[in-house]
Design goal:
This protein is mainly alpha-helical and 158 residues long. The protein has helices at 8-31, 39-51, 56-63, 67-79, 101-123, 127-143, 150-156, and strands spanning 54-55, 83-88, 91-99.
């Protein structure tokens, strides 16, 4: 490693600092719908909006929670009209969960608020730094398994 390369610890600290800023943006973007959904419930909606209809066990795995926890979250979202539950056509014993139009609108609304706040942050960056930030964050997202095709992102935004 050359003397100009940052240490792993310095990079970790930089990512932690940036993540705190982004968590604050996320919290503010959810503030307008806090009466409707909690942060974990919102994560369910995002997963269903991005990945489409899916079974409970797959959803629980994606959320890294027990199936019973995922069931309780989904029950609340079904009562609120944000998630629909149906039989899986290939196996009637399985449940298929999907975002309702209201759930998709909520995700789009929160995403738009978040996008607007992040746009302000990006505009504060020097233009040469923007491509470096894009490259680094894209690689970080890929390492975290958060890569979605642009087409997927456009399909769930209303």
């Amino acid at each position: 490693m050359s003397t100009t390369d940052p240490s792993d610890d310095a990079v970790v600290e930089g990512v932690l600092l940036a993540s705190r800023a982004l968590v604050a943006v996320a919290a503010r973007s959810l503030a307008g719908v806090a009466d409707e959904v909690t942060l974990p419930q919102y994560r369910v909606l995002v997963l269903l909006a991005l990945r489409g209809p899916q079974g409970l066990s797959g959803l629980a795995d994606a959320l890294a929670v027990a199936p019973s926890t995922a069931t309780r979250m989904c029950d609340r979202l079904v009562r609120k009209g944000l998630v629909a539950r149906s039989e899986d056509p290939s196996d009637r014993r399985q449940v298929c969960l999907q975002c309702t139009p209201s759930g998709r609108r909520l995700v789009a609304e929160v995403s738009e608020r978040r996008r607007a706040e992040i746009a302000v942050l990006v505009q504060a960056l020097a233009i040469p730094a923007r491509s470096e930030v894009l490259r680094a964050l894209s690689q970080l997202a890929e390492a975290a398994g958060e890569v979605f095709a642009q087409q997927d992102l456009l399909e769930w935004q209303l």
